[in-house]
Every structure is written in C-alpha cells, then in structure tokens.
Amino acid sequence: MLNGIARRIGTALAGLVLLVGAGAPAMAQDASRLDEMVARGKLIVGVSSESPPFGFVDENGQLAGFDVDIAKLIARVTFGSEDAVEFVRQSAAQRWPNAQNGTIDFGAQTTSIYADRALQVGFTRSYIDGGIVMIVRGDSPYQTLEDLNTSDVTLANLTTPTQEERAKRLFPEAQRTTFDGIAAQFNAVKLGRAQAAQLDAPVAAWYVKQNPDMRVIEGTLTGVINPGLFMKPGDFKLWQYLDTVVGEMTGGYLFNDYSAIYEKWFGTKPRNAKWYLNAQN
C-alpha cells in the first residue's frame, strides 16, 4: 500500500515538474519594453507641450522644460547621449491610452501618483514633490480658498477625474469649466474667463514669476503629492530600470545632474532624498 501511495505521489510530482517546465519557456519569452528600447537605441517619451515649466514650446519653437530635461538625462545615462530620445506631445487625457497601447515607452508629464491611476498605469517613485494650489488674478477679490465656494466663481480644471472630483468636493457651489492643458487653464483665469484654476505648486510659482499680475491663494488643496514617471502596467523589467534611475537622480550618483536641472527651472536646490545629506548642506 505504501509503495502504491509513493508511486502516486511520484507521478504527481513528475507531472508538476513537467507543467512548470512547460511554463518556464513561455515566461522567458515575454518581452519587456526595455528590451525594445535598448534595441532601438532611443527613448520614446510622452510629455506635455502646454505645462510650463515642466513641458512647453519655447520662443524658438523647441520643446523645453523640467520633464523634457529629465527625459534627456535618462537618455544620456541609458544610451550615452541626451539626443537619444523622441518626444511625443500629449494632452492629459492621452496619457493613459498612449502608455497602454505602446505609443510611448513611458511618460514624464508632472503626473501625480494616485491609487486609481495606478490601476491603469505603472508608476516609478516620485521624482519631485508637488501639491495643488489655486491661482487667481492679482486684482481678484478672493483672498482665501473658502471665498471661492460661491456660484459667482468659475473654476478652470484639467480634463482629469481627479481635478473634477476635488472641485466638486471642495467647491460645490462654484461653476466649473475644463481644459486639455495647463496653459489653457492659466490663460482662462488671466483673461477673466474663469476666476481660479487648480495648478501644481511648482507650476503656479513659475507662472506667477512670469506674470506679476497673478497670485497664488495661501493654502493648499492637498498634502504633498508625488509625481512619477508612468508606463504600461505589468512590465516589471522596464519599471525596475526606470525606478532605479529615478532613485539615483533623487538620492544617488545622479543627484548632481538632477539638482542642476531642478535649479535651472525652479531657482532653488532640491532636497536630497537621503535626508541626512540635507542636514549637512
């Protein structure tokens, strides 16, 4: 009897080994977008062209901005040249489809990490701190965030569910209008088509610096927000590579390069992700 049981167990184990062995080659054949990138010899990166200082078209008609320079840095450390990158200009609404269908390798588009978004795309760790504020005209009568919760106010939102939900929750009495790009949001307020717009704090600071007739209302609509690079979900090899590079930019051997880019666009030095190094500086 024991011999019979042993034979049955042995047969079952042998079948399991064959099953695992049959599955192993299939798993090994799963290609990563990283392999495609390396074979191609360049990155294909989705960016905004309407979100200064992260991504915009400069006076020479060229793409410029913090995210553009971050993508060039990744190209340089990957391929040895910052020119080894092709940019795809995309709106906020195009981000997820372009990542999911392979139009881009990844996106660098000041995109905040939220749980519902992580159901659609994969995110690296954060590469810059953010937070949402409200921008208004300098001559606006509105002094506090609470002042904006009135039917006389029209809020300029991006075409994203996050901004729409936040506006409905925090300013239920206000009217709302939506735009595809941050530049359009800002211009709506500047030209009087809307009274306030939700902007990421670094973006708002840059706009106010360029436009003294605009100001930021004191206070934030959120806590710290973490923008990350995003890509098609499920590609662990690509995610691991990009997350490693981001980690080195914000707290490793690439920090000096990252710091130069940060200071170029925001006028201040970033904090090293290794907090004890900040205390020494």
Structure report:
This protein has 281 residues and is an alpha/beta fold. The chain contains eleven helices and 13 strands. It has helices at 2-28, 33-40, 66-79, 95-100, 115-118, 161-170, 182-190, 201-210, 236-251, 255-266, 275-280; strands at 43-47, 50-51, 55-57, 63-64, 85-89, 106-107, 122-126, 132-137, 154-158, 175-179, 196-200, 214-216, 228-231. A five-stranded mixed β-sheet has the order 10-9-11-8-12, with helices on both faces. Strands 5-1-6 form a three-stranded parallel β-sheet. Strands 2-3-4 form a three-stranded antiparallel β-sheet. 35% of the residues are buried. The model is unreliable at 12-29 (pLDDT under 50).
* SSE succession: HHEEEEHEHEHEEEHEHEHEEHHH
Question: What is the CATH H-level superfamily of the largest domain?
Answer: Periplasmic binding protein-like II
Sheet with the most strands: spatial strand order:
10-9-11-8-12
Average pLDDT confidence is 89
Shape field: globular
- Structural domains: how many: 2
Instruction: Compute the number of helices.
Output: 11
- End-to-end distance: 75 Å
What share of the residues lie within helices? 40-55%
Structural class: alpha/beta
Could you please say which CATH topology of the largest domain applies here? D-Maltodextrin-Binding Protein, domain 2
The total count of strands amounts to 13
Largest sheet: 5 strands, mixed
Name of the top-level CATH class of the largest domain: Alpha Beta
Fraction in beta strands? 15-25%
Q: Give the uncertain stretches in residue-range form.
A: 12-29
Protein name: Transporter substrate-binding domain-containing protein
